[in-house]
Every structure is written in C-alpha cells, then in structure tokens.
Amino acid sequence: MWSILSVLVENKPGILFKVTHLFRSRNFNIDSISVGITDNPNYSKMTITTYGDEKQVEQIVKQLDKMIDTVEVKHLDEHKTVFRELCIFKLKIANANDSMEVNKLANAYGGKVHDVKKDSIMVELTSTPDQIKAFEELAKPFGIIDIARTGVTALQRSGA
Amino acid sequence: MEKNSIHIMETMTGAKALMTAMEKEGVKEVFGLPGGANLPMYDEFSRCDIRHILTRHEQSAAHMADGFGRVSRKPGVCFATSGPGATNILTGIATAQADSSPMIAVTGQVPVAMIGKDAFQESDIIGMANPVVKYAFQPRTPGEVPEMVKKGFYIAETGRPGPVLIDVPKDVQQNESPMEFLEEFKIQGYHPWYDPDMIACEKAIEMLLNSEKPIILAGGGTIISSAFAELQSIAETLMIPVVTTFKGKGAFPENHPLSLGPIGMHGHAEANKMMAEADCVLAIGTRFSDRSVGTFEAFEKRLKIIHMDVDPAEIGKNQTTNLAVVGDVRTSLRVMVKLLLQKAIKKTEDSIWLKHVKETKEYWRENLKIHPGEMGAAKILRKLREVLPKESVITTEVGQHQMWASLFYDVIQPGTFFSSTGLGTMGWGFPASIGAKVARPDVPVVDIAGDGSFSMTENSLATAVLEDIPVIVFVLNNSTLGMVAQWQRTFYDRRMVGVDQGGCPDYVKLAESYGAQGIRAQSMDELDKAIKTAISSDVATVIDIPIDPEEDVLPFVAPGTSLSDMILPS
Known about the structure:
The complex is a heterodimer. Helices cover 30% and strands 40% of the residues of chain A. Chain A is an alpha+beta fold. Chain B is an alpha/beta fold. Chain B is built from 23 helices and 20 strands. In chain B, helix 5 (84-98) links the parallel strand 4 (76-80) and strand 5 (103-109). The A-B interface holds A 9-10, 14, 17-18, 21, 25, 55, 58-59, 62-63, 65-71 and B 126-127, 130-131, 134-135, 155, 187-190, 311-313, 315-317, 320.
C-alpha cells in the first residue's frame, strides 16, 4: 500500500535526521520525502510517501507521533488530498521533429519545456507520481539523459 | 505589583546554571568521570551540595544512574566528558532506553566553534545517541541551559520513562548569561498522559468475565507505574492467575497462591504451560518481546488479548490485540478496580480453570528436576531468598545466573527485582546495584552475578569501596560464559568456542585488592554464613560461589518456538 504521510515538525536543526533515522531503525521504507517551512516559521512540514501494509503504516504513524519534535502526523487519504511532485527530465533529441514531439508530449501532460539545445531538451512536469511515471515511459524512446524529482508534497482538501 | 512582575535574572555561567537547575530537580547524587570538556561543570561540584560519585568507567556511571532511576523512579544522573567519555556511556543509555528507565546523561562537548572540525575528543554524540535516547538536547548558548534541564527531567520521568542526553559544549559551560529558571514550560509534541479509557476498561472486565481460562500477564510497565496494589486487587477479585514477563518479575508477590512467575524462554514451566492454555489475557505494560512470548502463533487463534500500555505505539507493534487500553497502567487498573467494586463483582470459588492452574503449579513446583549437587543453582538461590529480608533489592547481571534468579529467587515484595532485560547488557548488574544502594541505603542490595558478566564492570568495586556503598555481589562462578556454553551444548553439538574463563580472576583476591570483602562459599553452610556476614558488613562484599560449569538453565524454550514446547530437565 502506497501511503502519503503529512508530518508537522518543529523547525529545529536535526529533525530531518531524526525522522529519517526512525524509518531506518524501525525497518520502514521511505519512497520520497519533501520538507518545507510553513507559514509559521516555528514549524516545517514533511511529506513522506512510503510503502507498507496497513499494520506497518499504522506503526509508522504511531512511531512518528511518539517523536517529541513532531507536532502532528496525518495519514492522508489520497482521494481526499491534492498531491503533486515536480520532476525535471533531460531528454535526448536527434532533430527538430524530436523537439516538436517532446513539446507535444510535454503539453499533453501540462509540462513546460526549457533549455532546448541541438541534442537535448528539458521538460519540467508537476503532477502525480503516476502521471510522472506515465510521462517517463513515453519519453524513454527519446533517451533520458537525466532526471530529478522533488518527492511528493500534499495537502488535504477542505472538508476532507 | 510592578516589582513582582519583573523576573529577577541572575547572571551565571552555563555550568553553574546546569547544577542549579539540577538541584531544583532534587538531584542529590551524580555518577560520573571528569575530562577536559566537562571540567567547568566538575568545578561546580566543589561549591554545590550535589555529591559526586566517581566511577572507573563511564559505562558504569550510566548503569549506576540507571539502577538509581529504576529503584527511586526519579531520573538517575550520569556525567561523562566528550569523545570517548560520551561514547562509553552509549551502552548504558541504550540499556536504559530498552528497559524504559529514567535517566539524565550529561556529556561535555568541544566548544561550539570547534564542532564539526574533528577536534580532539570530539564525537557527534547527539547523532550517535539519537536512536537510543528518549530525547537529546545540545544547548548552543548558556541561556538555554535551565530550560533544557527542566524539560529533560520532565521528558525522562513522565509517560514511558527513558534516558535524556544533554550535551553541553565547553564554552556554553564557561560563558555567562542572565539565567531564567522557569517553572512553566510547554512541549507541544509531547503528550505523556492519556485520560483513562473508561469504555475500554469496562470492556476489559467483560472480556475477562466471559472467558473460561483468563490469565494476567504483568510486564515491566506494571513495576514502572507501581501498580502493585491494583494488580493484586484485580487478580484476587476475579481470581485470575498471574504470570509476568521477566521484566515484570515481582510485579506480583511470587509467594502468592495466584502467582505462577515469569513466562518466557526460561520461564517457569507452570507459567509457560498456563499461558499456552489460557483463552484471554490481560497484558499489562508489556511489549510482547520475543524472549517473553516465543511465538504466539500456535495459540493466538483462541487467545483474546487485552493490551494495556502507556505507549500507544506498543499497541499492535509486536502483537495484534483484541482490545487496547491506552494510558498509564496504574490509572487504568484503578478504573477497573473501581468498576468491579461498583458492580459488586467478587469471585470466591476456584473455577475449574483455577483448580487446574493450581494443580499444574503444584506439580511443577514438586517435580521440576534441579541439579542434584549441594551447590546447584536452585539451592543457592533459594538459600539467598531464605536469608535475605524481603525488602532487599536485587539486581542481576546477564546470563545463566540471571535466568536461575528468575526461576528460583522468589520476589516477595513487589518492585525489588531489576535486571537488564531488554538490551541484555552484561556488566549492568553490579554498577546498577551501586546506584540502587544509593537510592535505598536502608536495605541490603544484592547483585546476582555470573563470573563472565561481573568481569565486565568489576572495577566498580573501587566506587563501592571508596564511596562507602556496601553492596553484595553474589557470583555464581562457573568460570564460563555459561549461557553461550549452554547454547553451544544445545545447538552446536558441544563445540565449545570462546567460553572458558580459565578460573581467572580469583574473585576473593580481586575483592580484597580493592579493599572490599571477599568470601568463597563452597557449601550451603558457608553460603549461609557468607550472606549473613555480607548483610551485616559495612563494606562491599563479593561472595564467590563455585558451581558446576555443565549445569544448564532449564526449562528452555528454543528461540522462535512456542511456550508450550519447553526443553525440560531430563
């Protein structure tokens, strides 16, 4: 089961270390992690995606909750959550036609094209991990030179 | 009015602030060892009322603080310098964490500007200790010190207790700052107490009443929260037999008719048998560790589990439960006692189950084969029990003697038996007994030891002698790493590797060389006299008791098997 956890933590040095260490020492997996400060400078929010059965995820949530530096831990329901990830692809292109094809593909996925060179092109894509994966599959035939992803960030919908 | 609203802030160094804050927490003793990076704090001992107890190794200082903490249920404090001093206390901190023992470890650190430069005696103790502490602080300015000490004690002793590390850079100790010692503080992400779950408590009673073969499994949490009277009241009111985990040993008087003793790898035969037959268990303050429960799979289909714990993360961690009662176990048990009173529930007659339990207990008490020699482990430990007053405090080392103590030393007064049960730290018992004796100078304190384990921290004899802390070390000496030897005999076809201690050292001479009393006991008469001499002595005593190196601890539940499959003495 793929799960999204939203973890509000005190904005102090060493917290990211403690959270990731918890995952390691308890034998849990981190699929992705993103961290940013909130509107209140005393807090940061971590969005962690992880795999595990229901019991494992429940245990992760409880262990995170037990940490003294965590203020709030939420296991988000992905159907009631807006979640996105930013991904930048650098793709090979052989000719102008390739460039056009990549442009079309990027448009279809709501992406933006950057840094068009003679033999490479960059695509910035903000989407769900599934959509990013789908784009990646379609981009593969061009040749992927490099890829960078931020990890998922997420916010629960109002009233959810 | 205006005058009162102004905080009077006294200017002092970080070191002085740390000591002042600790005095405010009621600290009277600190166990430790000085070094370059904690000297400013050590200098404060020369002008404050806190007694410094010098140890010969920082690990022992941590175990002493741990022993003090378990007995007094207030955090014990240990001091170490930076670098190797700090890494030396790690084992002690991890031991305290594994057994939920309240502790404050204060380490010196290189000055703030030197951190990260691989300076002399620098170690990233905050990073290293993170997985084995309840919390860790590192003040970067002297003004932060009082609040960190205050919060540290609060975190260490509330909820599920544990060790807290305070790592103080040397310049933070030396520099001055106006200090504010606040009484009020808030830790937003820390909620150690939960209101008792009334509905769950009511449900628990219902489940116990509706079961045919109920049993109570008391874990270490029962002892930590001192829920002795409540536990006894529930057991007696509902006439339910009580087993314990090893950590919970002595949560319930072991001479009580309803007591079956500890379950587990080396649990009492009757306790393991009855645990395996029960259909409903009230598990109090236990994490269902592998050593306690073996594998529950064999009988968990018909066993209904009620799990009571102060730590919500323990619910479902190792064992799926039918009912969770989250909260301080003493408070929850009190709610149950009250409900039973209100409902006027009181069982008076033995059920078929209880008759069966009593018969089983009687059978095993009479028929468990013990070593035939005069100086067999069972006889030695029963002799110790016979001579020691019931309020005596026991600590143990780790190994065969520890499990023999579990099997053959009955704890009569609850909360007087302590052992490194979770981490299984060899060398824990002796320094822990010193800490325990500092907390309870009025009662005999005995470390039930083996020669292998005692060897690890035997230099604490210097502390016991020089600081006048007359503990008794009761060494069951088979000159072998006995538990390892037993596993090699059982699982490795008697290929004995790395277990022979070669009769070295001579513990009587060792004790004497430290100025302690050393007595060798080779018969029951000598043992009887030795224990009596040790109890009345005002100097630490080592009683060396040579035993048969071939004696095994039995019963034995092999790792990964069920409690019902015991290897029994043949």
